[in-house]
Hints:
By secondary structure, this protein is an alpha/beta fold. The protein contains 14 helices and 23 strands.
Amino acid sequence: MSIFDERRYLIPFRSQLLPQLFTDTLIVGSGVAGLRAALEAAKHGDVFVLAKESLDNSNSTWAQGGIAAATDASDSTEAHFEDTMRAGVGLCEPAAVRVLVEEGPREIEQLMRWGMRVDRKQDGSVSLGLEGGHGHPRILHSDGDATGRELMRALAAAARATAGIRLFDNCFAIDLCTDAKGRVAGALTWHPRYGLQVIWARATILAAGGAGQVYRETSNPRVATGDAIAMAWRAGAVVRDLEFMQFHPTTLYVAGAPRHLVSEAVRGEGAVVVDRTGTRIMAGRHPQEDLAPRDVVTRAIVEHLASSGDSHAFLDARAMGSAGFASRFPGLATMLAGYGIDGGSELIPIHPAAHYTIGGVETDLDGRTTRVGLYACGEVASNGVHGANRLASNSLLEGLVFGRRAVAAALKDSLPDPVPMQWESRVRTQVAGELDLGDVRSSLRSAMWRNVGIVRDGAKLRDCLDMFSFWGRYALGSVFETPEGWETQNLLTVGHLMTRAAAQRCETRGTHVRVDWPSEDSAGSFHISWRIGEESAQRSPVGAEAATR
């Protein structure tokens, strides 16, 4: 059995010796899903929200794209449903997609009541954009390309104004507290001022986002290290579909610079992907060409670069002109200007990068995981909405809809007050030299990008698993006292799980290509799930009941 399959805590401690706090609902994560859950939970009791760093540093805040919802009279939830199912390449759970598209418009109305601003036309009606994979303009934006920032501003303001919600910045959740029966009853946390603390809770909701930082090339902020997925795994929850990482086709490619996202909305306004000669890469490849689903555009770019030998492609938005580009995408224009690029008059160098963790902690339609007392929503959850490839701008809507539903489920479950346990963690350590965490993380991220990226091969995946076993013997057998070490252990855990699942997915589907399995599995669509201690994956067909909870 692998070291990754052993139940372990990251640090040794005795709970009765630590400061202890109590709350009705503990929410790990402060993005859109976490704050939406907090606002719902505060109607029924006290809520603690843990932000790993500052409240505004999350994938939600970084979102340039908008929120997809069928709010226009000429649109329909059925059309939104069909577009989502089509993008998911046979792996979406129809019931989950129905929940998303049918409950989504009400969440948009609630956002308006909380004061979120959206872009409007001169006549005052909401301006709706078109993005890849959508057959109808249904994308709401704020300030052109700053939807995430405005959404989080509105939610944070509502949360701060709501009695019963306590927001903890710079609070790192290390591990989940589980009792002898497997019930989750809170979490062990660390704060730079207060140190280690145990927070007991009737219900614990994971909403801490994804794991994009497991890849060298990523659009994600530095906090996206898969902590919640790793915690849930160690606590015995089932994880599912982790082989599916969505790669965004257009991130800025400047040597030595972060891979800044270049929003899908730019292509929605007419920009096209070209190579260094100006030839359109998507012409004739798909009926929607540059507005094809993200996996189609990403794959086309990767294949073109492989055949041409070029290091990157370009996005041509010159038809907008400098003034038009800056007016429509002010934040993006400012970012590009920092690199000496005028997006409205020059070609924008681009390359695909890891963007969204599709798989995660398995949940039902109400956010329940396979552990009593533990719920999950947003990017950390695998509820079946996104299938094998997320439809553009469905993620913020998912956080809103399922953040609220997770709280409703916890209330329905009527969990008892947590009983503080005499909880002792004895971490088995190994004798080893001091680890260079920066080197481990750099090697890990490069190996993931080379071997578990867009194009995969069975032999390389097996080699990558061997590397994880080597790193794991040292890093998982070490005790750290700061978030950098815990993050590294979480990245290793999630990277291993992703690679392990990718090796089991013997087909090409959605977000990735298997060169040794170039076609979809003829046996049909299925999910791959794992639980700690299991040596083999569990397969479940789409539409099957979730694991017993």
